[in-house]
Amino acid sequence: NLPVVAIVGRPNVGKSTLFNRLVGKKLALVDDRPGVTRDRREGDASLIGLEFRIIDTAGFETDDAETLPGRMRAQTQAAVRESDVALFMVDARAGVTPLDEQVANWLRGEDTPIILVANKAEGKATESSVMEAYSLGLGDPIPLSAEHGEGLVDLFEALRPHI
Ligand code: GDP
Ligand code: MG
Fold this sequence. Notes:
This protein is of the alpha/beta class. The protein has helices at residues 15-23, 68-81, 98-108, 127-132, 152-159, and strands at residues 4-8, 41-47, 50-56, 85-91, 114-119, 142-143. The chain contains five helices and six strands; from the N terminus they run βαββαβαβαβα.
């Protein structure tokens, strides 16, 4: 039985892009429109020889801003509770949003270890946004670029103690 890792976070931060990179197949739909992926996806991931089952949380697509947080919360909690460790992804270009803070509050109540990752961190312009993610109170953010494959060694080092 492989250890299980969930990727959680608000829509459009790059969860499916990281999932695709780690699974190595285009299993998760990626789209420029926020929240296009319909269902939760799972796949067998490999990161520098570390093997695990990975869950891409999705299904947040809705035009109804009032129901989004409730649906996100249910899916986020379900995935995190099944996982040995969870990656909480934020967008280093957008900075911390109120929805990120909401997700952080849900995660604080869970027993699963959380690794904070600041995605879209390619290039130097994002450094202050990466720092801003400290304010979420979930430890040191790991700068990552899922799209460009940067920060994967640091991600490996962060995951290894948990799986
Ligand atoms: P999800 O909703 O969290 O699953 O996000 P997606 O993986 O669907 O990505 C949302 C958007 O962010 C897409 O346009 C991606 O191409 C883009 N994206 C993902 N990772 C990166 C990254 O590392 N850098 C940049 N600049 N864009 C990214
Ligand atoms: Mg997605």
